[in-house]
Amino acid sequence: MQNFYLSIALIRKSKNQGLRWLARLDPSTKQLRFVIGERLENESFRETTIREVAWELMLDRKRDFLVSNMAQMNLEFIDRMPGYYDKSHIVASFYNVEVYRKEIVTQLESDPRNFWVSSEEICNGVSQCSRYFDPMVPYLINRSSVIQYWESSSGN
Questions:
Q1: Where are the alpha helices (DSSP H) in 45-131?
Q2: Which of 9, 128, 136, 148 is the most buried (most CB within 10 A)?
Q3: Helix/strand/coil for 101
Q4: pTM (predicted TM-score)
Q5: 3-state secondary structure of 98
Q6: What is the rounded distance in angstroms from the CA atom of residue 151 to the CA atom of residue 54?
Q7: Backbone dihedral angles phi then psi of residue 146, each to the nearest 5 degrees
Q8: 76-113: buried (b, 16+ CB within 10 Å) or exposed (e) per residue?
């Protein structure tokens, strides 16, 4: 049985049209995904989130973003991950990440690999611009209910 120890960064911002989440386009698969890291042996899930956000988004871990001290949600189960035939042991921790310097938000917005997507798009697995998510993202989000499809409505 394969083991997955995943840390998922929930990078969000509020806009006029409601809450949006940062998804990145994977150039090899052409699918959207969150910043997700595989936990290293002596590393906490929070440390994994910090490492992956800093590395993938090329941000300074001390000045550009803040990762919550506690996970928004921890999840552990045995199931078949999308794309895998055999069942796996899956441990996933979801951490809120706040980008708090205006120039960093602008930098993220100007990167063509970044898409600010709604909760509904994530839960449905496809963006309004017809880009599909890596199947693991909606699978983990829907399995955990850490993001609800209605959260991005402009009234929230």
A1: 45-57, 102-110, 119-124
A2: 9
A3: coil
A4: 0.89
A5: strand
A6: 26
A7: -70, -25
A8: eeeeebeeeeeeeebebbbbbbebeeeebeebbeeeee
pLDDT in tens, 26-49: 999 999 999 999 999 899 999 999
Contacts of 78 (CB under 8 A, 6+ apart): 1, 87, 88, 89, 90
pLDDT of residue 69: 95
Among 92, 90, 64, which Cα is nearest to 79's? Answer: 90
pLDDT-based confidence at 152, cuts 50/70/90? low
> 22 CB contacts (<8 Å, ≥6 apart)?
9, 11, 12, 13, 34, 35, 108, 114, 115, 116, 117
Tokens of 122: 């994530």
Neighbouring C-beta atoms of residue 130, cutoff 10 Å: 6
Q: What is the dihedral of CA 97, 120, 24, 156, to 10 degrees?
A: -40
What secondary structure letter does DSSP report for 118? Answer: -
The answer to whether residue 146 scores a pLDDT higher than 70 is yes
Mean pLDDT of the chain: 90
The structure tokens 């990078």 sit at 11
